[in-house]
Amino acid sequence: MDIHQKTRQFSGQLYKYTNVMKGWQYRFFTVDGSAGLLHYFLCEGEKPEGSTPRGSVHLAGAVICPSDEDSKTFTVNCASGDMLKLRAADARSRQEWVNGLRAVAESHTKAISATSPPLPPREHLAVLDAMGSAKTQLQNTEQADLALCRVLEAAGSTFINDPNLLLLKATSAASLHCLLQCYNILQRNQHQPARTGCPSIGKPQFLVILKMISTRS
């Protein structure tokens, strides 16, 4: 396992317990200390810059516990309710992972408590998860819109002279713009306190809108 204490970025191979049928599976894990996220990939080679991990969990509010069943296994119990059961190569490696993950979890738990006192960690992480999902879906939608534009423009005169294709391009662009505007509004609502006389979006409505963005995009 590679550990850099300054940035708390570390990575390495671990076994991840999936279920009774699949059992233990080898996965490549990385910790983003600045974001407080634990990512895992199918293998180390699957991790190009900017790629989407197979799974991610927030470490803020998480409880990391060595297992009593052996000297290699430990669990990551997340505030969101997710639980990862992991196994390192040996006892020393397990302790390095436990210490590193606990340090990141403690740091981000304190940060959440300092910046969002009224919001319990579980609810705060639900918002972070929803925002992350919406952002990913919007990025995919932007790519799809770009691909559509390229295909239509490659059609040349057929595209220019077909009102249905022109309408399709305009509708796609307008829908994407609307979704991006909604996402920006939600971001401002998430990070800025409500001003006097300005409407505020409550948490239930906030998550519902995020779900709608993810679904429609």
Question: Which features would summarize this protein structure in a list?
Answer:
single chain, alpha+beta, PH-domain like, 8-stranded antiparallel beta sheet, 49% helix, 20% strand
Structural write-up:
- The protein is an alpha+beta fold and 217 residues long.
- The chain contains 5 helices and 8 strands; from the N terminus they run E-E-E-E-E-E-E-E-H-H-H-H-H.
- It has 2 domains: 2-115, PH-domain like, CATH 2.30.29; 121-216.
- The protein has helices at 91-115, 121-154, 157-160, 163-191, 203-216, and strands spanning 2-4, 9-17, 24-32, 37-41, 55-58, 63-66, 73-77, 83-87.
- Strands 1, 2, 3, 4, 5, 6, 7 and 8 form an 8-stranded antiparallel sheet that branches.
- Strand 7 (73-77) and strand 8 form a beta hairpin.
- Helix 2 (121-154) runs antiparallel to helix 4 (163-191) and helix 4 (163-191) packs antiparallel against helix 5 (203-216).
- It is elongated and about 70 Å long.
Detail the topology: elements first, then pairings.
Elements: E1 2-4, E2 9-17, E3 24-32, E4 37-41, E5 55-58, E6 63-66, E7 73-77, E8 83-87, H1 91-115, H2 121-154, H3 157-160, H4 163-191, H5 203-216
Antiparallel strand pairs: 1-2, 2-3, 2-8, 3-4, 4-5, 6-7, 7-8
Helix pairs in contact: 2-4, 2-5, 4-5
**Unreliable runs:** 2-7, 193-204
The total of beta strands comes to 8
Reading the helices and strands in chain order gives EEEEEEEEHHHHH
CATH topology of the largest domain: PH-domain like
The CATH architecture of the largest domain comes to Roll
Helical region count? Answer: 5
Specify Rg, calculated over alpha carbons: 22 Å
Q: What does the overall shape look like?
A: elongated
Q: What share of the residues lie within helices?
A: 40-55%
- Assigned CATH class of the largest domain: Mainly Beta
Number of domains: 2
Strand content is 15-25%
Structural class: alpha+beta
CATH superfamily of the largest domain: Pleckstrin-homology domain (PH domain)/Phosphotyrosine-binding domain (PTB)
Largest sheet: 8 strands, antiparallel
Distance separating the two termini: 38 Å
* Average pLDDT metric: 76
